[in-house]
Specification:
Helices cover about 45% and strands about 15% of the residues. By secondary structure, the chain is α/β, with parallel strands linked by helices. The protein has a four-stranded parallel sheet, sandwiched between helices.
């Protein structure tokens, strides 16, 4: 199975930092790119996503995954417009570190559909509340 490329499209420097952290945890990760909306109009960001899609489209990757940070935000809107009705693309919102670590780990062994499903589940599972317990002041 071919390695599926990914693109992280976020507000500010969030995507760049997430991609950098994946590299720190797993070592160098090929075919995981990032774009920011910082200082860009919606049409300009859409054009950047379209450019990335054109670069990746001709190779037989088994699909493409685009991660965005916020459903309904400018990054998600640009990605939706850029992809249109193109087949073979999974557009996932709410990107977090768990999703990207899973992506880098599973993308060469799963189909696009199975990968997208597993990434959404990994992202959801990473969101939890840690119950804090009050600690005693003195234990003498």
């Amino acid at each position: 199975m071919a390695m599926i490329p990914g693109l992280v499209v976020t507000h500010g420097t969030l995507g760049a930092e997430l991609v950098r952290l994946v590299g720190l945890v797993l070592g160098p990760v090929e075919e995981l790119d990032h774009l920011s909306n910082q200082g860009q109009s919606g049409p300009a960001l859409t054009a950047e996503v379209q450019s990335w899609l054109r670069q990746k489209q001709n190779a037989d990757h088994g699909g493409l995954v685009i991660f965005v940070d916020d459903y309904g935000g400018s990054c998600a809107n640009a990605a939706q417009v850029a992809t249109g009705l193109m087949p073979g693309i999974a557009l996932l919102t709410g990107v977090n570190l768990a999703m990207l670590l899973g992506f880098a780990t599973w993308r060469d062994s799963l189909t696009l559909s199975d990968l997208a499903h597993k990434l959404v589940e990994a992202g959801r599972s990473a969101i939890t509340r840690i119950e804090l317990k009050e600690r005693g002041r003195d234990r003498a």
